[in-house]
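seq as requested:
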Amino acid sequence: MTRRQFLVASLMKRRPNIVLLLVDDLGYGELGFQGNPEIPTPHMDSIAKAGVRYTNGYVTAPFCTPSRAGLLTGRYQTRFGHELNVTGKLNLDPAVGLPLTETTLAERLKKVGYATGVVGKWHLGATSAFHPQKRGFDEFYGFLHEGHFFVPPPYAGVVSYLRKNEPPYDAENPMMRGTEAIQEGEYLTDALAREAVSFIDRHKAKPFFLYVPWNAIHSPMQAKEDSQKRFAGIADEHRRVFAGMLASLDDGVGRVLGALRKHGLERDTLVIFLSDNGGPTAELTSSNKPLRGGKGQLYEGGIRVAFAVQWKGQGKGGRTVDTPVIATDVVPTVLRAAGIGFRDGEFDGVDLAGKVGERTLFWRYGKSVAVRQGKWKLVRQNRAEFELFDLSRDVGETRDLASEQPEVRKRLEVELAKLNGEMAAPRWGGTR
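C-alpha cells:
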C-alpha cells in the first residue's frame, strides 16, 4: 500500500467514539480494581481489567471545578486563572466560569464531525456565557452548580445521611435539558445513566463524544433504599449509605458500557475513567488509603485518583502502568486517537498511547503548591514548610526528607518556581 492509499484508508476509517466517565469525590482506595473488596464495583473494575490501570494517575487540582477545567482543556487551569473552587452564590457571578479564551475538548471534536454530549454535573460556569452548549456540546442534561440532591423533596425512596445545615444545592440550580429547567423524579444517578444510554442509542451511527460527569458520590449522601439494603453487613449507617451510593454509581457505569456492547461499539470506543479529586473521608467515609490526606489538599490523597483507560480495539488489556500520568493527558490522547493534529507544547499533557517518559508535574491551589519529578515530590500545604517525599518508598508521605536531601529539595524548588512563574493569578476567590 502506498502512503497515499494509507492516508485515504485512514480518513475513510471511522474515528473512535470517546466516552469520558468522571466520578465525583471518589477516594483512591474505594474500588475493587484499587484493591478494596468491601463494596463490589464490577463494572468500573471491568474498565481496568479490559484496559490499562494507572496506579500513579493524577488530577490537576484537589477540588471540583479547577480539576474539570484542566481535564477538558488539557492545560493546567492555573495558566488561565481557573484556580479556585466555586461554591454557593459564586456560581451566579457572570464573570465566573471556564474562560472563553480556552478551547474545550468538545469544541475540538465537534469541528471534525463528532456528536457531542454532556450528561451530569457541569460546574464550569452557571451563567449563560459558560453554558455547555456554548462550549462545544450539542446536548446537555444535568445541572450547572457544584451539587444536587439525588431525589426531589420530600426525598422519598432514599436513605439520607445529611450534614447539619446541608447546603441547599438545588436553590437556583435546577436540573436542565439544554437550556430549559425540568423536573426529574428518578434517582439522579439512574437518571444520568438513562440519559447517557439514550445519547449512545441516538448517535451510534456516527462518531460521538459522551462526557458523563456523575455527581455521585459527592454529598448530599442519599442512597436508594434497595441499594443501601445490599450492605446490611456494614454496621455504620454513614458507611452503609456511602456503599449504596457507590453501588448505584457502578450500576450506572454498567448501563453505559452495556449500551456500547449492545450496539457493537466496544472495539471502536475509547473509554476513560477517573475521579475529579480524592475523597473527603470525614464527610463521605470515602477512603484514600494508603495515601495521606484527601479532598482539598495537595498530599497524594487529594490529587491521586483511580484512573483507567479502555479501548478494546487497540492493544492488550489488563495492564498496570506505574508511570505518573495526569488528567491533562486526556485531551492529547483523545485528539491523537481521533486523528486530530495539535501543536507541540499546546497542552500540559501527552498522548498516553505514546511513550510517557519522566516529566515534572505541577499543582497550585491557593496557598498550596507541589511538584513531582520521578519518584520525588515536593509539597507545601497551606504555606507551611516544604516537605519532600520519596513516593517509590513512602506512598503515604509519612517521612519528610527535605533536610536529608537538600540537593533534591533545591532542584525541585527551582522547577516549582519556574512553573509557578508561568501561571496566572486566580480570577476569583472561593474555597481555598
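Residues 1-12 have pLDDT under 50 and may be disordered.
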